[in-house]
């Protein structure tokens, strides 16, 4: 036979012809480890001189029972220790989850911004961020609520409209403009408009009601105009062989249907609507800005200007940042946000409703007219 021939004994240990010693490299530490061997040695030495064979066997049996008790006790101790750590980490995880949920719920429903009890004099900030629309965060109801909260706080030195918006709905913009003018006429404290990246179209409409407009040199300001944009698909629909079926009561009810040609009479009518809305825009800007506006006719052409250009045209009063405005008004960069918090559940429900309406084809814009930079 070969020299490296191996055989396995009844316990699974491998032996070779040259080395009959069992291979204990894979021994079980619970039944064959050094601790167990020590107990076996201890059991083997149990006894006294003169003990007969029966007494010696009984002593060895008792020693083995004691050894087994120790082993079981160690296993149970280890299991209890493991269970304690598992329970500890489970409780810690549950505590962190509950703390997170409690923080979210508190911030959503009970925490307020712009605490009127703040003793330090500060600016009262109201954010106008994003597109101005009834179904957007920058809607008239929310902004007007923030304006009144800041206005009524005794520790607000000046109310600041913090604007970063391309504009949006004419109606929403007009509502905010009217409220600012109402507060401005009371004269208790200044209302300032601070434009960040962009304050155009409907956002500038709002800003023009403020006592002063402040912008950065690179801000985009202006775009005083009204826009309607659509498409005409009447040729495309005829080429693919689709018949458009629209039933109306009123001969002009579907005059903006993109699958029908826009005739000259409808175009003239729609242009008159745009012109009248633009005139409202210009009149309100003139009422808010007064003699500070330049006589340059391009101001109302829909062009958009940089902050430096807007200063020369009288569209803004100074070039500065929010921090500089705060230091000028209260001596340090101190302000509080008075913009009402958004209800996360309401936002989720509203967004779901909008998506569902668009998928089902029921979505219609609030108004086809926009005070919005393109």
UniProtKB/TrEMBL annotation:
A Pfam family reported for this protein in Swiss-Prot or TrEMBL: Peptidase_S49
Key words, A-Z: Hydrolase, Membrane, Protease, Serine protease, Transmembrane, Transmembrane helix
Bilayer-crossing regions: 87-110
Highest taxon listed in the record's lineage: Bacteria
Signal peptide: none
Biased composition (Polar residues): 11-30
Positions with biased composition (Basic and acidic residues): 1-10
CDD domains xref list: S49_Sppa_N_C (cd07023)
Domain Peptidase S49 span(s) in chain numbering: 186-327
Disordered: annotated segments: 1-34
The family this protein is said to belong to: Belongs to the peptidase S49 family.
Protein name as catalogued: Signal peptide peptidase SppA
Source organism of the structure: Halomonas citrativorans
Lineage per the UniProt record: Bacteria, Pseudomonadati, Pseudomonadota, Gammaproteobacteria, Oceanospirillales
């Amino acid at each position: 036979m070969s020299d490296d021939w191996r055989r396995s004994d009844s316990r699974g240990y491998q032996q070779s012809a040259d080395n009959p010693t069992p291979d204990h490299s894979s021994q079980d530490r619970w039944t064959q480890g050094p601790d167990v061997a020590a107990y076996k040695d201890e059991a083997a030495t149990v006894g006294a001189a003169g003990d007969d064979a029966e007494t010696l066997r009984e002593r060895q049996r008792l020693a083995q029972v004691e050894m087994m008790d120790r082993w079981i006790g160690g296993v149970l101790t280890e299991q209890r220790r493991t269970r304690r750590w598992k329970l500890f980490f489970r409780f810690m995880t549950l505590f962190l989850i509950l703390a997170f949920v409690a923080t979210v719920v508190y911030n959503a429903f009970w925490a307020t911004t712009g605490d009127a009890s703040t003793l330090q004099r500060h600016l009262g900030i109201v954010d106008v961020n994003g597109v101005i629309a009834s179904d957007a965060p920058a809607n008239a109801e929310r902004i007007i609520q923030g304006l009144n909260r800041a206005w009524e706080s005794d520790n607000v030195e000046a109310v600041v409209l913090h604007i970063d918006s391309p504009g949006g709905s004419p109606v929403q913009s007009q509502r905010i403009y009217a409220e600012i003018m109402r507060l401005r006429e009371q004269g208790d404290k200044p209302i300032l408009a601070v434009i960040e990246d962009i304050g155009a179209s409907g956002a500038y409409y709002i800003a023009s009601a403020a006592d002063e407009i402040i912008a950065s040199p690179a801000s985009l300001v202006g775009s005083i105009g009204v826009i309607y944009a659509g498409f005409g698909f009447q040729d495309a629909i005829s080429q693919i062989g689709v018949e458009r079926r629209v039933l109306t009561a009123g001969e002009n009810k579907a005059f903006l249907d993109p699958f029908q040609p826009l005739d000259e009479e409808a175009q003239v009518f729609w242009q008159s609507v745009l012109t009248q809305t633009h005139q409202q825009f210009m009149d309100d800007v003139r009422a808010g800005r007064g003699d500070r506006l330049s006589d340059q006719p391009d101001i109302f052409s829909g062009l958009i200007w940089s902050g430096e250009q807007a200063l020369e045209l009288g569209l803004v009063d100074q070039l500065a940042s929010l921090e500089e405005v705060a230091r000028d008004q209260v001596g340090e960069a101190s302000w509080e946000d008075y913009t009402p918090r958004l209800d996360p559940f309401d936002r989720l429900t509203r967004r779901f409703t909008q998506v569902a309406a668009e998928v089902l084809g029921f979505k219609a814009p609030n108004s086809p007219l926009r005070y919005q930079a393109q």
